[in-house]
Each structure stands twice: as structure tokens, then as C-alpha cells.
Amino acid sequence: SPAGMALSVVVILLLSMLYEAIKMGKAVLLRRALLALPRSLSQETLVEPEEGDASPTQGRWFRYHIGQTLFHVVQVVLGYMVMLAVMSYNAWIFLGAIAGSTLGYFV
């Protein structure tokens, strides 16, 4: 039905926009993780803080890395969902995915 097709196009458009937003969120988390890394990148410094060093940034990089990992999983799932929708070979769905990706990148 025309209403079902319009709803499908809007859903794919929103999923594409969400995909782009998550991609940008991953970039922001990467920047924060790099800023939270300690100056010394030895394994001992990353795992165990030095005695008397109660820096709040110690270990924060790991939380950012976990956030990036979760964002990556969501991005992959959304990417495959949009890909499968586009592979329905429906021109309107394809245009919805392109429009959503464009709007998501623009915003």
C-alpha cells in the first residue's frame, strides 16, 4: 500500500540518519579517548596507576574505548539493516537511504 511504502521510506531515512550520527559520535569519542591517554603509553601505566597518582584521567580512556566499541556494534548493525533494505531493489527505499545519509551527514 502507498502508506506502508511511505512509512518504510521514512524508517529507512531515519535509520540512515542515525547511522551517520553514530559515525560522528564515534569520532567524538575517539578524540576524547586520545586526550585521556596518559603521556606514557607503557602497559604498566595503562593498567595500574602509579602510587600517589590519583589522576581522574587514569583509566578514563578505557571507558571511552568501551563506548567506541558499543557505537561500532550499533553502527555495523544499522549499516547491514540499511543495506538489506536497499537490496530490496526498490527505488523509493534506495532514495530514502540516500536522503537519510545526506541529511544525517549535513546535520
UniProtKB/TrEMBL annotation:
KW Ion transport (keyword) present: yes
Gene field: Slc31a2
UniProt GO molecular function: copper ion transmembrane transporter activity
Bilayer topology term: Multi-pass membrane protein
Stated name of the protein: Copper transport protein
GO CC terms, sorted: late endosome membrane
Sequence similarity: Belongs to the copper transporter (Ctr) (TC 1.A.56) family. SLC31A subfamily.
Compartment(s) where it occurs, according to its Swiss-Prot or TrEMBL record: Late endosome membrane; Membrane
Protein keywords: Copper, Copper transport, Ion transport, Membrane, Transmembrane, Transmembrane helix, Transport
UniProt key word Transmembrane helix: yes
Transmembrane segments: 6-22, 70-95
Species for this entry: Jacana jacana (Wattled jacana)
